[in-house]
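Structure ticket #2291
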Amino acid sequence: MTAIQTLSRPPAPDWLRARVYAGDLLIVRGTDPAAGLVDFFDHELRAAFACDAPTQAQFSMAPEDWHGVAARLRADYKRDRRAAQLMRDLLTAFGLDAGRTATDVPNLRAQPHDYSPGTDPRHTLGAHRDTWASNVYQQINWWLPIYPVTPGRTITFFPGRWDRPVANDSADWDLEAIRAEVLAARQEGREPDIRNTPDPREALDHHGSMPIVVEPGDVLIFSGAHLHASVPNASGATRFSLELRSIDVVDAQAGHGAPNIDGAAPHTAWRWFRRLDTGERLPEMGPTSVDRANR
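Resolution: structure written out below.
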């Protein structure tokens, strides 16, 4: 069982990494950079949905229109310099050294009420470990709600499986091959079969999961090796949340990170991450923990 630690200010980076690699969930309350991100995205969402209550916009729009706006926003903010700078401000406010930190792109997630699985699986994610796909055991996730969440509209964890293997299909999952298939399908005018993460190959006891509720302006920090999922949203409002993934380059080079319990991804996604100081993609950094475990 991992611990939940609630903090009133950002901790020392070395302590943060050690606790996250050990499986703790860290909640840092009300920091100014997080509040700045919330204000920025609140303004952007109000403009995009042309209303003062973006969490209710889905009920006054045609479904295809709502999903079109959500998809555009998701794509746009992965490349938005203002969002990237605000995320950089957050990480540096937490004391992360830009010279040894690399990040993935900001990810704005919109999970509508009464999600229909046939619409877009990127809105509601099933149980998974990010490391099943990335194979990067230094990956730290930063999660921020833009508007208030509830136990029925948030992210949930399976802390009892932190150090217990889950049968999964990560050995057969290749994001680059999936992206190539999606591109080919769209060029051929057919609907792509989007599969956002590797999947468990065993039934999971969702009664043992633990929804986490934090306030806008708080930051939830956790390892990419944690088994987690979206709570199916039947709350009467859309959940908007922001995610960023970071890694410590020094730890990655040294092989320090969370344990690999059950991952078997065929590749390591170093190139998903760019250095915070130069913007350069990370190069290959040698054997992963999966490689070591399989020797």
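Closing remark: The chain has a mean pLDDT of 90.
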